[in-house]
Amino acid sequence: MTAEVIYGSELAQSMRDNMKEEVQQLKTEGIVPGLTVILIGEDPASKSYVLGKQRASEYVGVDSDLITLPESTTETELLTLIHELNNKESVHGILVQLPLPKHINEQKVIETISPEKDVDGFHPVNIGRMMTGKDTFFPCTPFGIIQMLKSKDIKIEGKHAVIIGRSNIVGKPVGQLLLNENATVTYCHSRTKDMDQFISQADILIVAVGIEHFIKGDNIKDGAIVIDVGVNRTKEGTLTGDVEFDSAKEKASFITPVPKGVGPMTITMLLHNTIKSAKIHHGVYNR
Ligand code: GUN
What metabolic or biological pathway is this protein involved in (predicted)? Predict the structure, then answer.
């Protein structure tokens, strides 16, 4: 079997075009979705993600503000800034780019952002809402993955979804969203014994470990749906995923590439959440 490739880049573009129209309409009603991104320090990967967020916001018409702060910023300074943004009317979404310098407590920062402006979906209130099957801001990468599956009319219900990786940003929440869609979910991680046994059973395999070509075609079930969340830099300086694409493509029914796969969807769902937050704020969500 040769898999159909799911290009997140194409889905992201069509969703952004729709959002652009929606934002134009909202602006005629005096509603301007506003996002503030905070970047601390000089991490090159974080800088590049943040640049992507700025460009996409501009395209869609979201009013995006980037605050860059030095590595030496204290936790108190950051928390004070978040309190200010929580109280600022024009800001509907606050995103603090992770990871943070070691002297800042990440969880404290996440819990200081108002759940109503937590467009990352990382606040315990929003995680709790997601876990109980309520509408909320869903974490962007997992939410993007669900959109990619749905865009291809892939039935999730009853499928065995195996998640490799248990981060708070991707692994744990994507398992929860798949469970909400009635999948049977297995989490694998660095302490899992005989991981191959689980991988070979996966109807839907989500790989988010950050190890170049951790999964190969030999490992996966015929017809599996393979979602590669990894972004790894090769020795040659190009980007590659956690899945060996060429061999996996010959076994899978659907597969996502790296780049042009999950990555563009993450930013798209951030914009979606920001627009949703603005609509909730102005009482026009679900009209
Ligand atoms: N760092 C890597 N991914 C993310 C994300 O989705 N949100 C934030 N805030 N930081 C990240």
Answer: One-carbon metabolism; tetrahydrofolate interconversion
